[in-house]
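Complex 243.
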Amino acid sequence: MNETERYAEARTAVAEARSVVAFTGAGISAESGVPTYRSAGGLWRNYQAEDLATVGAFQRDPETVWGWYSERRSMMGSCEPNAGHLALAALEERLGDEFVLVTQNIDALHHRAGSRRVMEIHGNAFRTVCSVCDYEVEGLQYDTPKSTICPSCGAWLRPDVVWFGEPLDQALLNRAFAAAAACDLFLSIGSSLLVQPAASLPEVALSSGARIIEVNMEPTWLTPEASWSFQGPAGEVLPALVG
Ligand code: BV8
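Predicted structure with BV8 bound:
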């Protein structure tokens, strides 16, 4: 089957799907200028990055961790959603309640593209919460708050993201797994599928009989299982699939 036929087939699968889950990773934001984690030039390439996204690093050196997130907040805040984000917002517009977007990304670009049915399972870099009590700073912060001490209990404030070794929000994760188990089409977009438990979502969809469309720049463990796999930039492939 040639490329044109593969796209036509996958486009029909999107158009005829009863229920769609779109699962995104850092790759969907790459064309917006947000560095990925593990592909060439990614954030984790520099060992320091993966060491900073942990509770231990924050407890040892909160200023350095705050410095890293402030840098990333202003970088991500200056990026714009790309055609890939916009294509998923259009798909949500068309499918309504039969569409859900599960993202590992913390850059809020799906919201800024107009997506509303979004599960941010690794949190949101622009939300600031207390590291101890349930105090939350109102709204989104695009730089370090004036004071990083909780006005309610005096502990350190932190970015509302899930660090390595921290559990994800269980209720949110359960909803994401339920959606993956119930959908008939699962889109895996811009993820190396290495981080757990998020990377188990495509497995749940697969074992529940969903068809899989993968859009990524390099093969992953899911590629051989996908009904259609497109190796190319999400900002080009997604608009061609969503139509
Ligand atoms: C948990 C937020 C349990 C922070 C992130 C040892 C100790 C502790 C835990 C573990 C351990 N060993 C394993 C684990 C589990 C660990 C894990 O999975 N580690 C991996 C590295 C092996 N997971 C955890 O720790 C999780 N928590 O397990 O808790 C627990 C339970 C109860 C009680 C206590 C504990 C928490 C994981 C969440 C970590 N936080 N981010 C921050 O970002 O600052 S993870 C981080 O990776 C991001 O969220 C990112 O989204 C995510 C996944 O990466 P990807 O999105 O896939 O990005 P990547 O760069 O890898 O890939 C991008 C892809 O895009 C590439 O394939 C590329 O080809 C492609 N691409 C590039 N450009 C484009 C493109 N595709 C399309 N178009 C393009 N233009």
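The chain has a mean pLDDT of 95.
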